[in-house]
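ESCALATION

Customer reports they have been waiting on this structure for their group meeting. Please prioritize. Original submission:
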Amino acid sequence: MKKILTVLLISVFAISTSCSQSTDAADKNSSAPKIEFEKLVHDFGTILHGGDGTYEFVFKNGGTDPLIINNVRSSCGCTRPEWSAEPVKKGEKSSVKVGYNTRLIGPFSKSITVYSNATNAAVTLTIKGTVTPAEEEKPKQ
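Update from on-call: job pushed to the front of the queue and completed.
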């Protein structure tokens, strides 16, 4: 019984050690793509109703292997992301363009998650601001 228990404990230890080593090796892989955004949050401030609610989040590939954006998801339907499906080579820049529906009056804060093959596979971007009515739309007092 002691032999079985000893073999079992050694097996569990060996498996856990080998799993942690493979994760460490992947983390140290400097050739893997890394998505590096210039900024993660954009504050529009105040935007007039129907105004331009688009912003381009610029990023570069900080790794050696090509960076591929697999998907970009927004927190609601009022935000539409656009991105290129083309791989981004080492050191090159690209962007994720985000548009907000400025027909919705009031404050907003929306998140956009970028999924890629990079070591930091999911990156969350944020846009925020306040949409105010245009002059002709404001109620007269």
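Sent to customer with the following note: The chain is about 20% helix and 45% strand.
Escalation resolved.
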